[in-house]
Amino acid sequence: MxxxxxxxxxxxxxxxxxGVSLAIPKGQMVGxxxxxxAGKSTLLRMVNRLTDPSRxxxxxxxxxxxxxSGRDLRLWRAxxxxxxxxxxxxxxxxxxxxxxxxxxxxxxxxxxxxxSFTDTDRARAIExxxxxxxxxxxxxxxxxxxxxxxxxVAIAKALVQNPRIMLADEPIASLDPANASRVMExxxxxxxxxxxxxxxxxxxxxxxxxxxxxxIAMRAGRVQFDGAPETLTTDRVRQIYGTGDLSGDIDEAVTxxxxxxxxxxxxxxxxxx
Length: 273
Ligand SMILES: Nc1ncnc2c1ncn2[C@@H]1O[C@H](COP(=O)(O)OP(=O)(O)OP(=O)(O)O)[C@@H](O)[C@H]1O
What we know:
- This protein is α/β, with parallel strands linked by helices.
- It has one domain (2-242): Rossmann fold (3-Layer(aba) Sandwich).
- The protein is 37% helix and 23% strand.
- The protein contains eleven helices and ten strands.
- It has helices at residues 40-47, 70-79, 95-101, 104-107, 109-113, 119-131, 147-159, 177-194, 205-211, 234-241, 249-256; strands at 2-11, 14-24, 29-33, 55-60, 63-64, 80-84, 165-169, 197-202, 214-219, 222-227.
- The strands form two sheets. The protein has a six-stranded mixed β-sheet, with helices on both faces. A four-stranded antiparallel β-sheet has the order 2-1-4-5, with helices on one face.
- It is globular, with a radius of gyration of 18 Å.
- Residues 11, 14, 16, 34, 36-42 line the site of adenosine-5'-triphosphate.
């Protein structure tokens, strides 16, 4: 169980995350939705301590994550794999090497920089690539792959870290709908097969509804809704985001979503996938 209590992040005059409390059972797939600036990224970044909280606590399986420093903090970060919108791969390196870099916590930085990986590293990386249907691309330069393939390489790289939690910060925001579906399906498959907790930030309600066990809707740093996808009705979304304030992705999701049909992901920000 991941327990977040009164988690707050203040940047100058701005409270980006404002007293968020959540209890996330192991193995749950949670979609965090909200408009740009709602505090979704800051929340995720605090969970893996890329951003230090101003107040509040994060407890994972009874361990106070907010108190970690030094080696323990590095190990926590390694066990909390992060997927970013922009893939974070070394484009000029081949796919297999990119994935093996994910073994850094096990291999060590020096060996990783020298690209001196063990047979175990290589075997784990190939196994992960196989799960993501990317073995044929293993020796291809990462930069030559499509955006969707690159994001699946990033997921394979995260998998070889042996994470306890997978954090994905708008993993499909740069992808076309077909690639977005494959990436979300891959995350869901890993969540179900490995029992891995997944926290995924999404701009669109349809996607969260289609793939997540639970939806957290944020606005201005606060949790406005936390529950099962089917209980987040259109009326509830309108209450949260306000009828006079319905522009952008959440608005489109409200107007385009059937509440009974698990719609395929509707991507809103297609750029150079
Ligand atoms: N390092 C920072 N310094 C100052 N302000 C920040 C910093 N990081 C985030 N913010 C601000 O905190 C607020 C929340 O940002 P955050 O990125 O968490 O929102 P978000 O919901 O993830 O938005 P997006 O969907 O656009 O990524 C925004 O107003 C943002 O400008």
